[in-house]
Design brief:
Pfam families: PHB_depo_C
CATH superfamily of the largest domain: Alpha/Beta hydrolase fold, catalytic domain
Number of helices: 16
Domain PHB de-polymerase C-terminal: 191-392
Oligomer: single chain
Number of strands: 13
Shape: globular
CATH architecture of the largest domain: 3-Layer(aba) Sandwich
Protein name: Esterase
Organism: Methylobacterium oxalidis
Length: 436
């Protein structure tokens, strides 16, 4: 019912948005007499803020100076390659399935375009995936990771940003346990919740205070008609976004008041930066309920990977099986989503991986977002990642079994029956505080 009410409100506001857009044009167009009234800029600014504050935002484009190709695809994810096939080292960036789109890592991709053949996971909006495609949970996520490693390997390097650190590490452990020849050469884990018992944050404490049934009751809802995923249970992106905004309400109010003043003063550059940020920030996607709930239970309530009891399809996920894939953990000094030590736990759990294949970096002064994007990332973290991958590159490359030009997207019929969780829990916490 909540999802249906939200969609109904969106439809009811459509005429008002159209009227606001028309009024804005009337008070901005150089041929309109209204443009030259004393209050014209204030009226136009008010109309723009109303229209932007009530509309649904579409999925942003990467907009990078490189061509994009889909080289692997299944119902809940596709892999995008940037640029033409090359001999540069291959890097797969596993983007967080966190309510925001993979374009949130635009800056992360950009930092490696000159030195690597970059791929990124582009997760699907769950409300757009028909029920006929089946379910998608944490086990499916791990299956997807292993399938992508196989399709893009050999000699593949992987970077997991935040939430995917757990499934990526689990996939590597399972491949190592089976002596799979296409296990990645290295994996970089950035701000990942491997062991949330270490330096727990507010995000980590909430699941300890609420039962999994509470999350199921308050945070998951069926997708209404006419979305393609009609009937699917999801954790709605708009619900998560509401939680985000509630936790930093004053900040967002100030940002929009500043936007209004920029428009009134005619400060187009500042207004453009505001639009660019919020076009990305307000564009959200739904997560499947089974993935959301299983991840909360496995990672944040049971600490299954950290305790060595995590299982995938009935098989143990044993990080001591990792012997070939080099691991690097990156954390931020001021990360209030993933506390210090939570990602480094992966290095401690990989007991049979030699010290030469382990690396750790604590970025001083950086918060959660700063360890995978921004000036510090480009200047200090990205060079360390590139050096780590180069150090652990196979000196005698294995013969390619799958050429990039030959990678094709399988049909859905071939698929057998996937500062995310951090973001999802932030929203849940905000809603809990407001008596949800």
């Amino acid at each position: 019912m909540l999802y249906l009410m939200r969609d109904a409100c969106d439809l009811m506001l459509t005429p008002a948005r159209i009227a606001a857009g028309a009024a804005r044009n009337a008070y901005e167009h150089p041929l309109s007499p209204f443009t030259y009234m004393p209050s014209s800029r204030a009226v136009a600014a008010s109309c723009e803020l109303f229209e932007r504050g009530t509309r649904s935002y579409a999925k942003p484009a990467f907009g990078l100076p490189a061509s994009e190709r889909v080289v692997w695809e299944r119902p809940f994810c596709r892999v995008i390659a940037f640029g033409e096939p090359s001999t540069k080292p291959r890097m797969l960036i596993v983007a967080p399935m966190s309510g925001h789109y993979a374009t949130l890592l635009r800056g992360t991709v950009s930092a490696f375009l000159d030195t690597h053949q970059v791929f990124i996971t582009d997760w699907a909006d769950a409300k757009q995936v028909p029920l006929a495609a089946g379910c998608f949970d944490l086990d499916d996520y791990i299956d997807y990771c292993m399938a992508m490693f196989e399709a893009l390997g050999p000699d593949l390097h992987v970077m997991a940003v935040c939430q995917p650190s757990v499934p990526v590490l689990a996939a590597i452990a399972r491949m190592e346990a089976e002596d799979h020849p296409l296990v990645p050469e290295s994996a970089v884990l950035i701000g990942g919740p491997i062991d949330t018992r270490r330096s727990p944050t507010a995000v980590n404490r909430l699941p300890q205070e609420r039962s999994i049934d509470w999350f199921r009751q308050h945070c998951t809802h069926p997708v209404p008609w006419p979305h393609a995923g009609y009937g699917r249970k999801v954790y709605p992106g708009f619900l998560q976004l509401a939680g985000f905004i509630s936790m930093n309400l004053n900040r967002h109010q100030s940002a929009h008041w500043d936007m209004f003043n920029h428009l009134v003063r005619g400060d187009g550059d500042s207004a453009a930066k505001h639009r660019e940020f919020y076009d990305e920030y307000l564009a959200v996607m739904d997560l499947t309920a089974e993935f959301y709930l299983q991840t909360i239970e496995t990672v944040f309530i049971e600490h299954a990977m950290a305790r060595g009891v995590m299982r995938h399809r009935g098989e143990p996920v044993d990080l001591s099986a990792i012997r070939r894939c080099a691991l690097m953990a990156i954390e931020g000094e001021k990360d209030d989503i993933t506390g210090i030590g939570q990602t480094r736990a992966a290095l401690d759990l990989a007991t049979n991986l030699s010290a030469e294949k382990k690396a750790y970096h604590l970025q001083m002064g950086a918060g959660h977002y700063g360890i995978f994007n921004g000036a510090r990332f480009r200047a200090e973290i990205a060079p360390k990642i590139a050096a780590f991958m180069q150090k652990n590159a196979d000196l005698l490359p294995r013969e390619l079994t799958v050429g990039l030009a030959d990678v094709t997207a399988p049909s859905p019929d071939a698929v057998q029956a996937e500062p995310f969780v951090a973001a999802a829990l932030i929203a849940s916490e905000a809603l809990a505080q407001r008596g949800a």
